[in-house]
Amino acid sequence: MAVSAGRVATRRTTGEPAISAENLVKTYGEVTALAGLSFAVAPGTVFGLLGPNGAGKSTTIRILTTLSRPDSGTATVAGADVLARPDAVRRAIGVVTQGSGTDPQATGRENLLLAGRLHGLRGDEVKARADELLDRFGLTEAAGRVVRTYSGGMQRKLDVAMGLVHRPAVLFLDEPTTGLDPQARADMWAEIARLSTQEQLTVMLTTHYLEEADQLADRLVIVDRGTVVAEGSPEELKSGLRGDAVVIELAPDADLAVAGGAVEALTGLRDVTVDGRTIRGRVDHGASAVPAVLAALERESVAVAAVTIARPALDDVYLRHTGRSFAAAERVSA
Amino acid sequence: MTTLAAHSGYLTGRLLRATLRQPAFVAISLVQPMIWLLLFGELFRRVVELPGFTTGSYVDFLTPGVVVMTVLFTAGWAGMAFIDDMDRGVMDRMLASPVNRMAMMVSSVANQAVTIVVQGVIVVAVALLLGAELAGGVLGVLVMLVSAVLLAAAFASLSNGMALIVRTSESLIGFSTMLTLPLSFLSSAMMAREVAPEWIQAVSTWNPVDWTVVASREALSADPDWPAVFVRLGGLLAVAVAAIWLATRAFRAYQRSL
């Protein structure tokens, strides 16, 4: 029953956003967690909510998963209003909370069976589904062990499996890789990427890892102090910066003055600086600018040791939109 | 209603399995009531010589009292499981799922009920070994267990509701201790009502803990006053249902604070 409700919700939202938030405001006493947050998530995509700790990411997830109510604003998930029809939302979503939602005293299989049954799966169906997920997340061998004995990575996998047991239309992942070692994080990334491409699942994830948002999200919003400061695909956000950085390393016998003059004369290359044997500049499309740079230097017989192009990182995007570096924001909120 | 029953069943299974996987906890829960019966039985052996005690042996008198104290000290801590779930993230996952809220409360109560019945049976067995007569027989013991379960339902629900509001184990321990000790001493659990000061007698008339003790003691006597028993069982049932309902409302308070 719950499963069919989820499917209905998926069908109905085709064409409309799987998640939409409009002007969400939430305050805790004096502290404003959300100050008018708005965004929309297309079905079947991975949507990232990126921001430092304390930016309002978890508050947003709690509102969208019906755990918390906004002071004002509206939100719909899988076609249902979170305030008016919380039960419809709950049937359509899978939630992986920060920390862990697994019961440490129960085995992996028991955790999955309980999650499935509470979502209305019964009998052989829930058992088959649990076994399928255990297999898929590589937990079959550990299925009979109590979760207390699992590693952090295994618990996180079980968490995600529990969020998927009833085949939700929308999966919420709140900081899915926090506290995982690099290998477990890479595994989790691969799994999340697979969910959206193969299963048409809408995934919303929060993260304070720039790299994670860059890797996984089709679109993302950067949240700072409870509002959206930038929105787009990681590529769009990065190309919204003033282009790629081009770094030219000259050979030891090169004539620095001639080289500088040649590079500065090129059109399209901005912000040229000469620092010892290194010339830096910015250009709209780094890859297409390289041949022109090399040709100009060759005409002046300047020997080049190396040319590198650096794509702007989300770090730069964050810096540009909030006026502070991501690491600094993390330090303030910690 | 079917959802409530089904979800209560699944969640009770979860709690019972978790209990059985902690052998030390099981052992302590089983031994503790025995120790109370033995200790208090020895300490107060001659207290029955005071006027006001109607039973011949103090063990007979004390058996329902120990069962009731076991209820308070077991069910009073029910909320600790809720706090574990909150700290872990299980609570948020549950509340973001279509789980029936009242089933979360009912399953906790059912888990307590199973524990209480097992503990009650052990107390009865030890009492018989110590020479108690328990003239009311099997029926009397059953009535005692039913009233103990109803009291456990009320206390477990209060403990759970409080857990949802205070959200830390320290505060819950304080609340539970503050509630259980006075309520057991403001009853005839350890001492005959007639021996207690008048104000305690007056207070105990309205104390569900005392209703449990009186209903059990009557049912276990040779010639029970059944109307008195049923009035108290009815009162306990009403308190238990009200407590479950009230505690279920506390989920809203918890979610408001998120």
Distance between the termini of chain B: 28 Å
Integer average pLDDT of chain B: 92
Helix content of chain B: over 70%
Order of helices and strands of chain A: HEEEHEEHEHHHEHEHEEHEHEEHEHH
Q: Determine the structural class of chain B based on helices, strands and strand pairing.
A: mainly alpha
Structural class of chain A, by secondary structure, is alpha/beta
For the sheet with most strands of chain A, the description reads: 6 strands, mixed
Low-pLDDT stretches of chain B are none
Main sheet of chain B, how many strands, which sense, barrel? none
- Please identify the top-level CATH class of the largest domain in chain A: Alpha Beta
Q: Helicity of chain A, in percent?
A: 40-55%
Query: Which quaternary structure do these chains form?
Result: heterodimer
Sheet-strand content of chain A, in percent, reads 25-35%
**CATH architectural label of the largest domain in chain A:** 3-Layer(aba) Sandwich
Specify the number of helices of chain B.
11
Keywords (chain A): Antibiotic resistance, ATP-binding, Cell membrane, Membrane, Nucleotide-binding, Translocase, Transport
Membrane topology (chain A): Peripheral membrane protein
Subcellular location (chain A): Cell membrane
Protein name (chain A): ABC transporter
Secondary structure layout plus pairing:
The complex is a heterodimer of chains A (334) and B (258).
Chain A: H1 2-13, E1 19-28, E2 31-41, E3 46-50, H2 57-64, E4 72-77, E5 80-81, H3 86-92, E6 93-96, H4 108-118, H5 123-136, H6 152-164, E7 170-174, H7 182-199, E8 202-207, H8 210-216, E9 219-224, E10 227-232, H9 234-239, E11 244-250, H10 256-264, E12 270-275, E13 278-283, H11 286-299, E14 304-310, H12 314-322, H13 326-333
Parallel strand pairs in A: 3-8, 3-9, 6-7, 7-8
Antiparallel strand pairs in A: 1-2, 1-4, 4-5, 9-10, 11-13, 11-14, 12-13
Helix pairs in contact in A: 4-5, 4-6
Chain B: H1 2-20, H2 23-43, H3 58-75, H4 79-88, H5 90-95, H6 101-129, H7 137-166, H8 169-185, H9 198-205, H10 208-220, H11 226-256
GO cellular component, one term (chain B): ATP-binding cassette (ABC) transporter complex
Membrane topology (chain B): Multi-pass membrane protein
Domain ABC transmembrane type-2 (chain B): 24-254
